[in-house]
Amino acid sequence: MHTQMIIITDAHISKANGNHAFFFKMLESFERKNRDLIFLGDIFDLWIALPRYEEEIHRNFIVWCRRQKSQRTIGYLEGNHEYYLANERASDFTWCSANTWWRDAGGVLFVHGDQINRKDLNYRAFRKLAKNKISKFIIGRLPFGPQISKSIKQGLKKTNINFRLQLPKAEIEDFAQARFAEGANVIFIGHFHMQYHYRNRDAKELHVLPDWFSTQKVTIYDRDSKEIKSIHWEEMDV
């Protein structure tokens, strides 16, 4: 475990988006930095971690993570654009989770954020339908994989249109208070594609992080100094 970590969220990498070359160039630059690396979900625009569904960009990413996890911690928290990753690919990372959050030994809580807004009933129903053993069994055996993938992507776009237009600050702060009471010291959240900072009376902090997709920013957290900064990945020092 290194003193510093790099956190990346909501990159939405795909060849269609044309951002995959920049993403892998960034990963290559990380090899020269002594920092742990946390992927906070929705790193790919869609990743169904099953045979016939994974593309070259997913496989290249897995090769990189396998190689790098001997040099640094590589953590991956599933977002709402990843499916079955924790079941099928856990061994390729230091840790990989499909749970609502992951907490490390130092009290740092990593959250994708798609389940924070309990009022988003359409998305909650969609998630329950899509992320279960029965759906995994069916999707893994049906032909027409690309067509299934397109349907899932369209379903994601339609589930929470209204809820994506504003940040649910009250729900986020309620979530933070509950996790702080359980022992978390600092919380990092993705999903919302905007930045937000919340600090309670005990100086515990929650940070909603900028999305890589529109900003190409990463967040650097120093465990010792507690310093947190979000910058463009090309502006990082060694």
How would you explain this protein's 3D organization?
By secondary structure, this protein is an alpha/beta fold. It has one domain (4-118, 162-235): Metallo-dependent phosphatases (Purple Acid Phosphatase, chain A, domain 2). The chain is 33% helix and 21% strand. It contains eight helices and 13 strands. It has helices at 20-30, 56-68, 85-88, 121-130, 133-141, 145-159, 169-181, 212-215; strands spanning 4-8, 36-39, 47-48, 74-77, 82-83, 95-97, 101-103, 108-111, 186-189, 196-199, 205-208, 217-222, 228-232. The strands form three sheets. A six-stranded mixed beta sheet has the order 6-4-2-1-12-13. Strands 7-8-9-11-10 form a five-stranded mixed beta sheet, with helices on one face. A two-stranded parallel ribbon has the order 3-5. A hairpin with a 4-residue loop joins strand 7 (101-103) and strand 8. Helix 4 (121-130) packs antiparallel against helix 6. The protein is globular and about 55 Å long. The model has no long low-confidence stretch (mean pLDDT 89).
Query: What kind of assembly state do the chains in view correspond to?
Result: single chain
Total DSSP helices: 8
Distance between the termini: 17 Å
CATH level-4 homologous superfamily:
Metallo-dependent phosphatases
Number of domains: 1
Order of helices and strands: EHEEHEEHEEEHHHHEEEHEE
Principal-axis shape equals globular
CATH architecture: 4-Layer Sandwich
Side-by-side strand order of the widest sheet: 6-4-2-1-12-13
- Identify low-pLDDT runs: none
Beta-strand level of the residues, as a percent range?
15-25%
The CATH class assignment is: Alpha Beta
**What is the makeup of the main sheet?**
6 strands, mixed
